[in-house]
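Lab notebook, design round three. We kept the backbone fixed and only want residue identities now. Task for the bench partner: fill in a sequence for the structure below.
Input structure tokens:
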């Protein structure tokens, strides 16, 4: 992906880096990270560009506002999710693969795509990363913009074909889910998340590796390591009957396992952390508690985080913590299983323990 990106888009990355240095838009990152952003742009333009053109600006603003309300708790969150469900179906695309790149592309199509991404409430981090490219392309002659976007979409088309060869063995059930299960998601707020296409799974898999490489040195130098696990990894649900409910206790950094179920994977990881000197928390409500200023106030050391999540959300988390100045590594669940999005009853999920220890730099010997 990196080699092909340099071949097709290396000159474009050079121009963008010069633009960032001139405008001081952000601290310059690694080149593969910018190739990842261009790949995100190309894949989403190919898949959702037409859907984005049908979304009106007033509707986009309304959905964006509802997404903000969804960050609250209690009844306000429930009302926001119900309202979003009424609109979300029109944001859902039935396209299963990417078309041949369009012959005409414009800044308007890119801007409408960014509006669409923010309106979904599920692609806000991706939109934030692409706004920098939007500013860059706005200063470029119109004909050059078309050439740039065409090149980006051609790169995405190459990636769809190549990633299916390299990663397709890991995603054979996506199409079956889209055809058999997704129709039951109509009017659900999470239909945009759950209708993501096979190439998007591959994009996120590669994206996790790109971000891991970019932050690897800083992560390994962090004095303290923390592993954040999603709620779907625990054996007991947080909503079961009291006597069967997970007994994890709340802390500022997330819930801490209390060893109520020996066979629970979260309990096993917690015990492993005691052996190899890392802490385990069930995902914190606000990742800012791990940022450097917050930790300094509490007299704590710089923390490196391993964030565990399903494929479609991992690079979003990686960008989130990077923006907070937290060195992190992403680890993908072996499969999806939470009952909020993927399964009516919920299936306890799992990870590759060897890969976790490798990310932590642990010699398990």
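Proposed sequence:
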């Amino acid at each position: 992906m990196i080699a092909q990106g340099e071949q097709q888009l290396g000159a474009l990355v050079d121009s963008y880096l010069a633009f960032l240095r001139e405008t001081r838009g952000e601290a310059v990152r690694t080149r593969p990270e910018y190739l990842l952003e261009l790949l995100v742009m190309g894949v989403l333009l190919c898949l959702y560009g037409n859907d984005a053109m049908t979304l009106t600006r007033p509707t986009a603003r309304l959905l964006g506002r509802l997404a903000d309300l969804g960050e609250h708790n209690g009844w306000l969150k429930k009302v926001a999710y119900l309202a979003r469900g009424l609109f979300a179906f029109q944001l859902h695309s039935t396209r299963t693969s990417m078309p041949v790149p369009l012959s005409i592309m414009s800044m308007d199509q890119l801007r409408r795509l960014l509006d669409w991404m923010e309106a979904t409430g599920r692609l806000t981090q991706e939109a934030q990363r692409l706004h920098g490219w939007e500013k860059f392309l706005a200063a470029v002659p119109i004909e050059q913009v078309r050439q740039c976007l065409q090149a980006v979409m051609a790169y995405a088309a190459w990636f769809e074909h190549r990633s299916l060869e390299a990663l397709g063995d890991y995603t054979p059930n996506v199409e079956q889910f889209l055809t058999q299960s997704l129709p039951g998601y109509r009017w659900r707020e999470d239909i945009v998340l759950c209708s993501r296409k096979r190439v998007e799974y591959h994009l996120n898999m590669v994206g996790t590796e790109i971000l891991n490489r970019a932050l690897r040195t800083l992560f390994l130098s962090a004095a303290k390591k923390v592993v954040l696990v999603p709620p779907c990894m625990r054996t007991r649900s947080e909503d079961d009957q009291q006597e069967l409910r997970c007994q994890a206790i709340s802390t500022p950094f997330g819930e801490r396992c209390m060893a109520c179920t020996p066979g629970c994977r979260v309990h096993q990881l917690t015990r492993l952390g005691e052996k190899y000197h890392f802490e385990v928390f069930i995902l914190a409500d606000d990742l800012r508690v791990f940022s450097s200023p917050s930790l300094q106030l509490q007299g704590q050391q710089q923390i490196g985080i391993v964030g565990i999540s399903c494929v479609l959300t991992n690079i979003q988390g990686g960008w989130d913590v990077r923006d907070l100045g937290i060195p992190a590594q992403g680890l993908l669940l072996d499969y999806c299983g939470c009952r909020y999005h993927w399964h009516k009853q919920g299936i306890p999920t799992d990870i590759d323990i060897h890969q976790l220890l490798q990310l932590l730099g642990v010699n398990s010997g």
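Keep this in mind before ordering anything: The chain has two domains: 2-203, 222-360.
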